[in-house]
Predict the 3D structure of the following.
Amino acid sequence: MKIAVPVYDENLKIFENTGHTPYFAVFTQKGEGMFKKIDFLELRENPRANIHANKGCSHKDEDMSEEEQIAHKKEHDVLGEIIKDCEVVLVKMACKNTAKVFNECGIKVCKIAPNAIFAKDSFASMRLS
């Protein structure tokens, strides 16, 4: 199984706002329980990256027309393309459009502990199998 985690860079520090993450770190999980092994596979760049939007962004659907809302949602479609081969994405924060795109792509969205700092910390509290 492949798992994606939004991160700043190769240091694999978690980026909180999934939709604007600079990169997705992709991991592979093999086995289960005490035999579970999770290995780093690669970084995938996000063209929607906005380092200044780590704590959230100012996009508010209620302030947009219906056409603007549709266009805004389409901007998020690239996120699903980036990690379309992953079964799970671990997030601290994801707007409704980000979550919708992942769900449409069959990618399960799992919330990770607020105190997780690095991608490896996000696996401690998760039961992925």
In short: The mean pLDDT is 88. Residues 66-82 form the longest helix (17 residues). The longest strand covers residues 37-45.
